[in-house]
From TrEMBL:
Family: Belongs to the mitochondrion-specific ribosomal protein mL49 family.
Record's subcellular location: Mitochondrion
Chief localization: mitochondrion
Highest rank taxon of the organism: Eukaryota
Keywords tagged on the record: Mitochondrion, Ribonucleoprotein, Ribosomal protein
The keyword Ribonucleoprotein belongs to this UniProt entry's keyword annotation: yes
GO molecular function annotation: structural constituent of ribosome
Family matches, as Pfam families: Img2 (PF05046)
Signal peptide region: none
Full protein name: Large ribosomal subunit protein mL49
Gene3D superfamilies documented for this protein: SUI1-like domain
Length: 154
């Protein structure tokens, strides 16, 4: 193939009709039949897990929340959560300690903070820390909290 600068010159001089296009090489049909179809993901070998020392064990992932959202009553609550200026829920995810710690933050709430805190603990299954104007839950819980607040009617 010609470099781009020579291609443009060839096109300008009318020599573009003499240029040939090179196609990607393909396997001949006899060799393709001999090799068979490419392996599928279902036929792939299972990935062997890394060995751990005898004093360690694998951590089983926790469920996102202990109580299903359908089981939590959705009537009037002694607290309220306001939306942000753009109409979104005030739920934020903060990555700390160089990415090793993830915290979900809930802001813009009012009313009975202890009731809100106990409800958050029931929904996420984690302990909730109270700070000035915000509640923090360890882990990524933004989708769960958004569904929960939407179900409550906020």
């Amino acid at each position: 193939r010609l470099p781009n600068s020579q291609m443009t010159m060839a096109a300008a001089t009318g020599a573009a009709s003499r240029m040939t296009r090179v196609l990607k090489a393909q396997l001949p049909p006899q060799l393709r039949a001999k090799l068979g179809p490419p392996p599928l993901a279902a036929n792939a070998m299972p990935v062997r897990q890394k060995r751990l020392p005898p004093n360690m064990e694998r951590k089983i992932r926790e469920k996102a929340f202990l109580i299903p959202l359908e089981d939590i009553p959705s009537g009037p609550k002694p607290f309220h959560v306001m939306r942000s200026r753009m109409g979104n829920y005030p739920i934020y995810t903060d990555v700390r300690n160089g990415g090793s710690k993830v915290v979900t933050i809930l802001r813009k709430f009012g009313g009975d903070v202890e009731a809100l805190k106990s409800e958050l603990q029931a929904v996420t299954g984690k302990t909730v820390a109270t700070y000035h104007g915000r509640l923090e839950v360890n882990g990524r819980h933004q989708p769960i909290l958004s569904k929960w607040l939407h179900r409550l009617g906020f």
